Amino acid sequence: xxxxxxxxxxxxxxxxxxxxxxxxxxxxxxxxxxxxxxxxxxxxxxxxxxxxxxxxxxxxxxxxxxxxxxxxxxxxxxxxxxxxxxxxxxxxxxxxxxxxxxxxxxxxxxxxxxxxxxxxxxxxxxxxxxxxxxxxxxxxxxxxxxxxxxxxxxxxxxxxxxxxxxxxxxxxxxxxxxxxxxxxxxxxxxxxxxxxxxxxxxxxxxxxxxxxxxxxxxxxxxxxxxxxxxxxxxxxxxxxxxxxxxxxxxxxxxxxxxxxxxxxxxxxxxxxxxxxxxxxxxxxxxxxxxxxxxxxxxxxxxxxxxxxxxxxxxxxxxxxxxxxxxxxx
Length: 329
Hints:
- The protein is α/β, with parallel strands linked by helices and 329 residues long.
- The chain is built from 13 helices and twelve strands.
- The longest helix has 19 residues, at 299-317.
């Protein structure tokens, strides 16, 4: 079977599972062609498409591949794949559920600590010879500890649960919101309490996003919701930039309703330097901490993802259903 890969060859070489040489496949890398559509036109017999989590896959691509059986995200997210178009054509869409939960959870806690404990501004102060000046200022600022915070997890899937497990030893009060409340035994095991979304943002001092992007969650962090946050609340996003209304978050930082933003993901990607949440006014620029979408980028995360992805290819080759289907087939 021919496998069309919409991603860099180096990554597939680095994380190839041990059973890959046994599979009767031919790998074709789309980057060897002028465009993704050109790659599809040149390889109409491709049976599977493997794609990174931010490259769009629409009906136009699917129509060029009449033998396509599966589209598989290289990550956890699958919002850039047209799920309905694939469903109508009988094409499985799959993802790597849970592969990056531990790595993203670690990254989330890191960003929380950086936002609360002057991770960037403190570093800069030392570089500029202002170490003592900043230390004196922080000593009288009643600076927060992570363990003192009420943390609201918006989303409690694999990553949200992994984040709760890491936060619990800090002593945080942990709350969560999801569209479907978890069973009491899960809440007890994680040490989390359920709150409706508006109550959660009113009570928590750190809000951490762990939702998938869909029609219900896109721009959920909007002006109306941000009006309800406690002044000084820190917003952490290691999920997807599309969950936030960029201009509303920007204004909340300027107004002081948000005391900080710690973002691993912004929309769009690649993130331009003039992005409204990057090109902040000088008086509030210190409130923001960024990382370049590194939450799931660990060797362990990619190894787990590629093993699952190629295992799904193996299942398709055997005429079986692949793992973690997300488009209802």
